[in-house]
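Q: Here's a chain of 298 amino acids. Please give me its 3D structure as tokens.
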Amino acid sequence: MFTGLSAFPLTPLAHDAIDEHAFVRLIERLSEAEVDSITALGSTGSYAYLSSEERSRVARLAVGHAGGRPVFVGVGALRTSEVLANAEKAEQAGASGLLLAPMTYQPLTEDDVFELFRTVTANSSLPVIVYDNPGTTHFTFTTELYGRIAELPGIASIKIPGVPSDPEQAQARVQEIRAAVPAHVTIGVSGDARAAAGLAAGCDAWYSVIGGILPALAMRITRAAQEGRISDASAESERLAPLWQSFAESGGSIRVVAAIAEQLGLASPSCLPLPIQGLTEKQRAHVGRIVDELGLNP
């Protein structure tokens, strides 16, 4: 299950409540595009801003409308007891796996994070994806910590940050991680601008933000890389350079993806949880031009 394209959809809001109709539509689009899996309640899904009840509802909607495709559910929270409660509700919803990020207010140590994963794997029967996203969690995993955690029963995959742009350095980084973790633990790249490079370097999966809103596009890159057509995957990714640049210039991919969803009529205006304001009108217009010029309208 933990290979290929895993699409991370938004959890659109309207009037400070989950827009269930919009969310279901996004999930059904992913199923129709035949993505390999769906990861609900990732950072793109605004999990940290939702209540336990909202998260449980989102998990049930995702599983119910995924067309039988595997659904992984984000369960991160500040307290371990809340993580365990989220994991239980995700399992009850029919999730195929858990996505776990070490959320923090006080800085966490490596032992804190290891114990979090040990506790979750000891108390849940679902496989776990280790979510390394220092840009949002403000915790950076070491390769050694990957190795410690990956030895725990139930760890299935590691979601790593984007690989270096240099192909040799990217391959060396993936091989370094591969050597530190058991063979059954897959390595999934994130950071969409580096996805083609990560897949070319030997990553097994792409945990994709853009795949959650434009799945056909992400699938073309993924399948090209899987079939050994690395130049095709790289060329398609390079064609999207203006989009990747907008991610970097806009304070994170979630704002750009939300703007695209709103532009395509897949979410209501201002679909992000406050206090996140989304893009300015000038930035929205710029993203709109990128979508039009690159032919990204479905």
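Q: Can you summarize the key feature?
A: The domain at 4-229 is CATH 3.20.20.70 (TIM Barrel).
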